[in-house]
Specification:
Blueprint lengths: L16 H7 L28 H14 L5 H4 L15 H4 L4 H11 L1 H9 L1 H9 L22 H14 L6 H17 L6 H17 L1 H5 L4 E2 L2 E2 L22 H16 L6 H25 L7 H9 L1
Length: about 300
């Protein structure tokens, strides 16, 4: 019998921007999936992908010129875990994160641009006077002073911002914010057809056409004053099937239920041990409820009904 070689190929690695830089062996202020540097983040055209050959070649050259006796320098070069996984390429298996790359990006940037241009008080007033709707967050106190929101609240703001800024910002700015919002909504389709990809491309091109008006209206500001660039890593996009399947909503939710809530129940000392015991007790309670529910049920639950009981 011939020997069989089994290799695991990554289909998708969901992680945030700092983790993607680490996985792709890339320095900060660069794209983990392309050869783009920070000054090129706002370019309308995509750059060359960061391929398997390019990354491993750069690591080999770094190892060649590094002095093994210089520990600080030599330890900066390392072999990525995916180097032996066939043609695994960071530009392919590093996926976009809908929660951070779209929704949190919208709150950190377009909302901030609107606050800088029209003033936080006016934006808050326009949001507060909107008619409340069931299923959509009503911003009675505005958003200009908020620091952190949930993913659902980010999505609710995406529905409202293009309408409430009309008349308070230049028309070109309104077009830019409307097109970036349209891009986010179009990208959330579960199926991407040729028409959808065309709409995404057109929306992105239109945003790049009008984005200079945001800088002209002093929408981009930093700690030291106005900014005249769009060096935002989240504007670097990629395609790997329907992007909305790649989202960290579940893991972020688990961070609340499995970390933050148990932490509030501790005395803030030896948290890791207390957290593990808390989760272990929760698991035992769930198993006990499952056992009592399945044995005390009349008639006894079948395998299929038991699965339904567990999901409920």
């Amino acid at each position: 019998m011939h020997n069989l070689k089994i290799a695991t190929h990554p289909r998708g690695d969901l992680s945030d921007y700092p983790e993607q830089l680490l996985i792709s062996c890339t320095a900060s202020k660069r794209s983990p999936i392309s050869l783009t540097v920070s000054a090129q983040f706002g370019d309308p055209l995509p750059h060359s992908p960061r391929t398997h050959i390019h990354t491993l070649g750069a690591i080999e050259r770094a190892c060649t010129i590094s002095d093994p006796c210089d520990i600080a320098s030599f330890y900066k070069t390392f072999e990525p875990y995916w180097m032996d996984w066939g043609d695994a390429c960071p530009s392919c298996f590093l996926t976009p994160d809908a929660l951070h790359q779209w929704h949190k990006f919208f709150f950190n940037h377009p909302i901030t641009w609107a606050v800088n241009m029209m003033g936080g008080a006016q934006l808050d007033r326009r949001l507060s006077v909107l008619q409340p709707h069931v299923g959509v967050r009503h911003w009675a106190n505005g958003v200009s002073m908020l620091k952190q929101l949930t993913g659902q609240e980010h999505q609710d703001l995406e529905k409202l911002l293009p309408a409430v800024i009309v008349g308070a910002v230049p028309n070109d700015v309104a077009c830019a914010l409307c097109t970036i919002t349209e891009f986010i909504f179009q990208a959330q389709n579960l199926f991407l057809y040729k028409e959808t990809l065309h709409s995404l491309t057109e929306a992105l091109h239109e945003f790049h056409h009008y984005k200079a008006s945001i800088i002209a209206a002093s929408g981009r500001r930093g700690k030291n004053g106005p900014l005249n660039h769009f060096q935002i890593p989240k504007l670097d996009t990629r395609t790997m099937g329907a992007p909305y399947q790649w989202s960290s909503d579940i893991t972020e939710r688990c961070h609340i239920t499995h970390v933050k809530r148990p932490y509030r129940m501790t005395n803030r000392k030896d948290f890791h041990g207390q957290c593990c015991r808390f989760l272990d007790q929760q698991e035992k309670l769930q198993f006990f409820q499952l056992y009592t529910g399945s044995t005390c049920h009349d008639p006894p639950l079948s395998r299929s009904n038991l699965d339904l009981y567990c999901s409920a």
